[in-house]
Design brief:
- Helix 3 runs parallel beside helix 4 (133-140), helix 4 packs parallel to helix 5 and helix 9 packs parallel to helix 10.
- With 323 residues, this protein is of the alpha/beta class.
- Strand 4 (146-151), helix 5 (172-178) and strand 5 form a beta-alpha-beta unit.
- Strands 2-1-3-8-7-4-5-6 form an eight-stranded parallel beta sheet, with helices on both faces.
- The protein has helices at residues 61-68, 83-86, 102-118, 133-140, 172-178, 200-208, 215-221, 223-234, 266-274, 298-322; strands spanning 41-46, 89-94, 122-127, 146-151, 182-192, 211-214, 239-244, 281-287.
- The N and C termini lie close together (11 Å).
- The protein has a single domain (4-322), classed as 3-Layer(aba) Sandwich (Arginase, Chain A), CATH 3.40.800.10.
């Protein structure tokens, strides 16, 4: 049973448009707060998009996701999970990037997530562009490589961009494999689609054993079958979950930097997360929400809803380990 301090503010006690927004109206617990020792799942903002190569804006994603997440309530209406009663959850703030220095930002993120891991907190991160996932993995998987279930329309496995730039939102998982952070035969990428420059990323995936499931296969086989394979690939060992909002069709999530048509609808986007039940999740992220391209906030509301679905799965896993 969760500590009552970690219960979110109810909309019956304070209107959802009032008060200081935190992720899902949870208490904010900073690194110097003594209650940080009691946090089991920490929701973190990663307001950084210096890896973006075309349409910028995901640096503003965490703030809008916080605001829209005030609509989240205590219980998952479909699964019945009440995550805030299972484990102690808190908004533990933002990683502070250096917007003028990519390498310094990568180092800052890595140090932050190493402290999170050392504190025994399972992180759920709101990005930021997809380069954010690399230093998160550096912080969480520096001792032993982990598996990954990756929802996206792009593989993010390219070697480099623009005359050798190694750190963009199109390269994080290439770097993670090269650095021994990901165990490639325990990595599955779901929903890949769109036009391409070439097959460099797919060739790399084939060469190291990463399973790529294109969107055509995803729809042909169906969600349950695809996700059963994903769970089999990662097994019971520690696994990271990375969810790019552009996995979803832009009709439902237009607020992103690199949209690709022909993706899942919002209900299917939630279904794949529910199928993560039983995965040994050591951390997760939701990235690439770009508010400037969706001023009405629908993309961020979908993103916040997906984070809640992730939280429900993670809370059950953490509570099960505690028991």
């Amino acid at each position: 049973m969760s500590d009552t301090f970690f219960q979110p503010v109810s909309g019956f006690d304070l209107p959802r448009y009032a008060g200081v927004p935190t992720f899902m109206r949870l208490p904010h617990v900073g690194p110097d707060d003594p209650r940080i020792a009691d946090v089991q799942i920490g929701i973190i903002g990663a307001p950084w998009d210096s890896g973006t190569t075309n349409r910028p804006g995901p640096r503003h994603g965490p703030r809008q996701l916080r605001d829209l997440s005030t609509m989240i309530r205590a219980e998952n209406g479909a699964t019945g999970v009440r995550p805030f009663e299972l484990v102690n959850c808190a908004d533990i703030g933002d990683v502070a990037p250096n917007p003028a220095d990519v390498q310094d930002s990568l180092d800052r993120f890595t140090r932050f997530y190493k402290r999170v891991r050392e504190a025994g907190i399972v992180p759920l991160t709101a990005g930021g562009d997809h380069l954010c996932s690399l230093p998160i993995l550096r912080g969480l998987a520096s001792d032993k490589p982990v598996g990954m279930i990756h929802f996206d329309s792009h593989t993010d496995l390219f070697h480099s961009y623009f005359n050798g730039s190694m750190y963009t939102h199109g390269t994080p998982f290439r770097r993670a494999v090269e650095e021994g952070l990901l165990e490639p035969k325990r990595v599955v990428q779901i929903g890949i689609r769109g036009t391409t420059y070439d097959r460099e990323d797919r060739d790399f995936a084939d060469s190291v054993g990463i399973r790529v499931i294109p969107i055509e296969e995803f729809f042909k086989r169906g969600i349950e079958d695809v996700m059963a394979e994903a769970r089999e690939i990662v097994g019971t060992d520690p696994t990271y979950v990375s969810y790019d909002i552009d996995f979803v069709d832009p009709a439902f999530a237009p607020g992103t930097g690199t949209p690709e048509i022909g993706g899942p609808n919002s209900y299917q986007a939630i279904q794949v997360v529910r199928e993560l039940e039983g995965v040994n999740i050591i951390g997760a992220d939701l990235v690439e929400v770009s508010p400037p391209f969706d001023n009405a906030g629908g993309t961020a509301w979908l993103g916040a809803s997906l984070m809640f679905e992730m939280l429900c799965v993670m809370a059950r896993a953490v509570a099960g380990k505690k028991a």
